[in-house]
## 1
Amino acid sequence: MTGLITYIVVIFYFSIIAYLGWKGYRGTKSDLDYLLAGRKVHPYVMAMSYGATFISTSAIIGFGGAAAVFGMGLLWLTFLNIFIGIFLAFVIFGDRTRQMGHQLNAHTFPELMGLRFRSRFIQGFSGLVIFLFMPLYTSVVIIGAAKFISSGFAIDYELALFGFSTIVAFYVIMGGLKGVMYTDAFQGTLMLVGMLFLLIFTYSKLGGVVEAHQKLTDLAPIAREVFKGTGHQGWTAFPIFGSQFWWIMVSTIITGVGIGVLAQPQLVVRFMTVRSKRELNRAVLIGGVFILIVVGVVYVVGSLTNVLFYEGTGKVAIVVSRGNVNEIIPKFISGYMPEWFGIVFLLTLLAAAMSTISSQFHAMGTSLGRDFYEKGIRGGRQSVRSMTVTRVGILISIVLSVFLGYWLEKTYGGTGTSIIARGTAIFFGLCAATFLPMYFGALYSRKITRTGAIAGMITGFVVSGFWLLFMHAKESTALLLCDRWFGRPCLLQYLNETSGKWVSHITGPIIWAEVDPIIFALPLAILMTIGYSVITRPLPEKHLDRCFSK
Amino acid sequence: MGIQSTAVWLAYLLSVVSAIGCVIYGVINWNKGASKVKKEDRAWLEKEEAREEEIS
């Protein structure tokens, strides 16, 4: 992707971004002005900016790569993303979060929970969980962007990683761009148009919708050969029930990400910035279509890359990328798409990554400074030091995320692991198990007590952590703690003396070492939240009246 | 459709149907839910802006 056309596209793109940034900055001096003056922002602009921050680069690169491995069965996640991530999130959680957040004057997710349940511990603990574990999610978003840069500009991954991280760090340290609604909307529109182009281009190159699917179906014997022993049945079929791939797809990727989106701290905060329920209603319309096009296309095109790669090289996607799942989409874009499209796509994805990552760094910094330090440690006494801790928190999270981005790619890069999809799923699953029962209870029940909320939160966190460290083979093997303590990579595996390999215990269709933590942690957390709330004293009626705006 | 299994075909269909559902919901409720700015909303935004300024 070099040459004159590249430079023209880059200059044109940045000119538009600069103009829109200036227009947004000039038009809306502050959020307060916007709210009080009742300035009208077109619902399209608003919903597109939602979409651009909702879907990050990692979704396109990482989950597109995962679709090239697992196939179109991942479309179940598109359905959940629309139904749970847009419809339920906006309609069931959105307005109540906004009202309660404003009523209690809460500005972060931990603060909202802490004030709702009158618990410094809840705020401090939630803040610490976000600060310690969100770097995993941020790192996989960075990996997605760095992979695409390294492929697009033909430079080393390490150089792309550190170069991109430095730019994002400056962006965050400078305070991020203010009044970015128009630029976000422009990027959202580009993503929408780009993905539609990608879909139409791919389908037409393969002779139409049905023909393309049929060609992919015809590759099933090759899928079974390449992914032997995993339960793969082809890219337009679901893996065999109870097989290794079935458990990864259903329990980790589809359930973890599909449900986990409801308890994402940085997304919850977005509901509070909305002016009224009307804006949320309107966002449902455009958000639903946006997710269908962007995410749906990722899974369809991701799967279809196998046909194009096979027709061009005689090898399927995972073989062409030499086992590196995250390289599949970048290789496909640079190999099969027109040059101008590649560069526009690259710039759009980078912009999407920057806005997502900067909001994540912001969430991690405030979690450490405001929630953990100021509220959890100092008991709510404000000081100049809490601001310093927030800034140090942002810095630490940047360093940690970049290090993880380097280490994860180095460790899992060529192993066929969908590290972006898995990293996202682990964080989403952890958030769901730790925060979701408490969050839902906070919004919808006056009967959930402080002890109930704490019991559910601790249970969700401890069970998820324990399962990841000792039971879920992929993570427990990599984290080494299980090996050090128990002399085996995973407690749910045994050494097969004939093959000399560690294999999982199996009960009927259950491969225990492949079952995701969320399957146990979330139901247990719900049970503990309800159970402890039944036997402990509820919060004072007056406080509850305030929370529920009465 | 050229798709091998019903489970995958169903996911394809449900994705489109749920997006259409979102469109219908949005159209029906397009002008519903507008509310006046309360003093809590104003206080919330003032504090939010002050915090943003502190960090940047």
## 2
Amino acid sequence: MGKERTDLLRGTLDLLILKALALESMHGVGVSRRITQISAGAFRVSFGSLFPALHRMEEKGWVEAEWRASENNRRAKYYRLTSSGRAQLRAEERDWSQVVKIMTAAVESA
Amino acid sequence: MPGRIPSFFRNLLRKRAIEQALDDELKSAVELLTQEKMNQGLSHPEARRQALIELGGVEQVKEEMRAIRSGIFLETFAQDLRYTLRILRKSPGFTTVAVLTLALGIGATTAMFSIVDGVLLRPLPYPQPGRLVEVGLDLPGINQFNWPLSPADYFTFRGQSRTFQDIGLYYTGFGAALYSANVTGRGRPEHVPALGVTDGVLPILGVTPLFGRSFTRADDEPGSSDTVMITYGYWRSKFGGDPSVIGKTIDLDGKPSTIIGVLPQSFRFLEMTDLGVLLPLRPRTQRGYNYFAVARLKPGVTLAEASADVARMIPMELQGDRAEVQLRHLKWFKDSRIRPNLQPLKQYMIGDVGKVLWVVVGGVGLVLLIACANVANLLLVKVEGRQLELAIRAALGGSPGRIAGGLLLESLVLAVIGGALGLLFAYGGLRALIALAPSDLPRLNDIGIDRLVLLFTLGVTMVAGLLFGSMLPLRYAGVRVGTGLRETGRSVSASRERHRARNALVVIQVGLALVLLVSSGLMIRTFQALIHVQPGFTAPAEVETFHVHFPPEMIKAPERLVRMDQAILDNIEAIPGVSSADFSGAVPMDAGAESNLVLVKDHILQVPPARKSFWVSPNFFRTMGIPIVAGRDLTWDDVLNKRPVAIVSENLAREYWHNPSDALGKQIGGSPQAWRQIVGVVGNVYDDGTSQKAPATVYWPITDSDVFLGGPAFAIRSARAGTQSLMNEVRQAVWSVDPDLPLSAVHTLDYYYRNSMARVSFMLVMLSLAGGMALLLGAIGLYGVIGYSVSQRTHEIGIRMALGAQRKYILRLILGQGTKLALIGVATGIAAALGLSHFLSSLLFGVKPTDPATFAAIAVLLTFVALAASYIPARRATRVDPMVALRHE
């Protein structure tokens, strides 16, 4: 897998996860479902990518995790955005719309 | 990467916990997914199967998560570390030498730094110590600096200051005659070091008592009941830590005094380590410039502002009516141009010892550098032997980064082991170092290995490791596969480039060693010059001295004191082997002599300079071995009948009358009302140490000073001086006069004489140790390089000999190589030493920092040692058997 491609994918995935967690804290499975839902079913994130991504974000301090009971009373690890996570979300949103704008302009000019 | 380091260590410690958490999270995800699928109507086994499929291989997910958690770094690191340790274990000789060399260097540096840390760097043990200042006076007009205050100064400064939060006066005594109190009525009479304080001192230092209360202004009033505070140590030893001690009384100097407070264990007062009791100073009952003052500045006030404030207050005192004020009206006192001398308390305590310490730290640091160069050299040799291995690793796909990292890691591991061992050395060596340290080194109790020292050691270790480690990867990580593999085969002679780094290291070592040896050579010359100066007294080891302390109320009866002092003296003179004895206010070089203004009748209009003043009994000069140059000694008739006589030193006599005998019969005095006739002129005594000029000195009859009569220093000339048996008889001699008299400061005159040179001897010992280590390490370094070069050139030498080269030629070839390196090193070192030795100039005596003789001697010595170090491998080279050398190929 090429370096750029990973970064691009990883960046997109991060943004989606941050966005998913923006409203409320949720566990890994919940994040996956929420991403599918907000992307109107377009994205299905594999758990093989999702969990490592969540842990990476925890290492970076964007999210905090805590164990608590889920809606149907099972123990689950819940992730919550930290303030630096929120800042990261805003930054990534800004970057993303920049990319979209530039790409749109570039594609349409051709 | 930086973000990973903490998590790397966290993970190192919690590896199992992390694994568990990964497991738990994935299990929970499986259950959540299963539940979700069951909600959609699947059976449990089916739901679980699909959940596992969706999760996509639990182990793979875990592996990825592990990698995220700094796992990769951990793995590689552990692998490299294991590899490094294996390499080091494989060559125990190399590892031992490298680690020991480093441990010596790091240990010595750490030990010296912990002294610097304790003495110079660590803040004083009081809250907000930066606001504490020592308040004194300078009198530049009469060349007197750092004068203490009088009670009148204290009252003025306390009442009028705008910059002091508070000021307190304290009294410690002077020189060997430290302030102390006799505790009687509890067994053997005890002489307890004491401190007089006004009520402000303890609050200024932020000290609150462990039990009871501190002094209040009421305790300071004359006529109030006698109170005392005791230190923690005294409380433990005398009262067994009994908390009901408050309110009890002890007999201090014959007066029952009520204990009002116990000080905390942490309490330290400046340098006074074995302080027992604190007494109220009662400034209204005191007089004279005998009291030191400590003040706490108001927040935000600078030293300059406080100085200006004191300068403003000094003239105010002239409006007072105390005795000191009368003194100040005198014209010449004004001529003294009195001005404030405020110093941060810490600086006041440290004085100028910082220079000595930094020089020694510098010297020890140079030894560490040499040690690093040595280890770098060893590593260079060793890594060269491993070129094949490195080339193979590169060929098998080891990235240059990883190989370089591995070599650097090897250096760091060596450094860390050396550092750990060095820390042990430092811990052991510190006590020895403190024992060597000059006795005037302040804050000795603050010295120890604390966090800053540990941090320093860690830093030094890492820098050292990186320093010698960085030389390797640069040269070897990039070994091209082809070259590396080819070059490890036989080469006819060692390539020039190969040796350049090692040669440079040897040159540096020799140069640094020269700098250190020149420094210690200069200290040796200084020491020689110092002991060459006759101190003014003779055979100081044969003079025993000690102080006796009479209770203060006896000072009011000076006639009785004289009789008792005389009775003690009579008893002492009766001891077998005592050839002469006397009593006086102070002993030469014990820092107890006062500086007093001395008027000369012939020169009454001159500003009278302060002169060293001793109060002595007859036979003082005979006992000390000070020659009488003109006139006569004091007689008992002079002393007991208070005849107006005095004796002066030769330099004082020459200053006014050019000829010592012309001084006889001239009038001098402490005030215009009390003239005394000079009856004798004696030889100069270097009371401030032989490195200073001998001060002009006046000797008054001891009966002139009630204070010194009450706490005289006895001196005994006897071949038995310094023995326990003599002191036992002396104690009996004293106690047969009064069994309640404690003795203190029992030392020979030689002790004070040696103390006056303590700094020089400390520097001498430390720099010589450093120089010796440098010489040894430098010689080993040179030996190693030449030896290695010979072993590499065995083949070449064999060919040369086969072609007819003489052994003499081979010897010269190898010796020449060593000599060339040594000479370049010596030249570099001389240049560096010329630049650096001026740092020593203020510590030198009787020798210039560029002393050609020292430089020449050291250069010759170093060259000689270098020749010897290269001679051994050179001889080995001449023994090469051409046949063996060639067959070896």
